[in-house]
């Protein structure tokens, strides 16, 4: 199979991210295509068909939020074995939707994407919930909300369970604002952040860090510091001029608020250019 050309992949990702209603599954699959050069258009279509097929196995409108949660747990968690373990945090595949569909293993947020996309196709009132440190899935309106943890096979969470997850991750109590539905682009941004963190711990995988940063820069809203991170990665990978130019662009952006930082970044840019000599 032949995957996407880099420019075409970036165009598709940017176009979808800027659409009126971004498609979560497509954006996640395009992230997977950046990582996996064998994932082509047919592979994207096959993954979408897999999600449709899973949705077709969900009982027809089982009832209220809890009934939906249980139906999805019985199908995805119990019958099909979608879940996670600590070892999944060590694998890049755990952040790639097409691989998660194939392996039935992944990080909490990618397993949540599977739950959301299958449940949505089946007609459930479903959404992601971006708890600090642990992504989960919600069903129903705020006054009747039911949370499930796909990483734990779709276990239905009590209020105490959610409190424990948040406190364990942050040391702070659970706040009602943490339980609101996550926006599609926020989910994708968090997935890319996870990939960047994975790559940062593995300096030999600067290729992964670079494409993750470049996709994050295509999202409509992103921190300017990503420009600096991209510049550093380019210089690290021997693209000294392009890296220096990116760092200089970033310095120009931050100069009005932090002149000292801007000067430090310009020094890094000069050092990158000097490596050409």
TrEMBL record:
Which branch of life, at top level? Bacteria
Q: Which protein family is it in?
A: Belongs to the UPF0162 family.
The family database entries (InterPro entries) matched by this protein are listed as: SirB1_N
Q: Where do the Protein SirB1 N-terminal domain residues begin and end?
A: 66-193
State what protein this is by name: Transglutaminase-like domain-containing protein
